[in-house]
Write the structure tokens for this entry.
Amino acid sequence: MPDHLILMASYPEVGLSKARFIPTLGHEGAARLHRRLTEHTVAVARRWRASGRSRRVFVACDGATIGEFRAWLGDDLAYDQQPGGSVGARQAIAMVRAFTRGADRLVLAGADCPSLDAAQLARAFFALDYTDCVIGPNHTGGYYLVGLVAPTPALFAGIPWGTGAVLSRTLATARNENLCVGLLPALPVIGGPRDLIHAAELLAPFPVPG
């Protein structure tokens, strides 16, 4: 029973990554935050992979080549290049690729949730034994992960990405598709400077500009 975890990741670039954090952390600090959040998520994914059989981790790469991502994150992961298009289109393509490769269960996760751990990932896959779809809500009206047992492109279409209506619209779509949905506990994500308290361990070495 192959389980596929796909991490939607973008490459950290000074002056471009986490732009809304630049006034607080500076250009290099914002890029460093981006880097550390992604590395944290990859470490969690490795722990999840190591705790069971038939588990694969893929990184969907944006903003750099697969070679650059591999040099950054390591050779033990599988990599795909993200296509252009909306957040939803990218997730839908990543989903289709996973099921085409033979995944029985799939979880897509972002890299902005420092509270995510291997146990939470295990809960997500366990939930897919009993549901068609599992969603991990965040505190801003979106979600930090979504899991499926079959290709469902409609789940990612027509969603107002970047707004507080992402979760509600996704749940409405799931109902329209007659999906049985399981919800995980809500976790905070790092969306703006007020959320930095949730990344205290990652931020500890930062020299914050005065």
About this structure: The chain has one domain: 3-203.
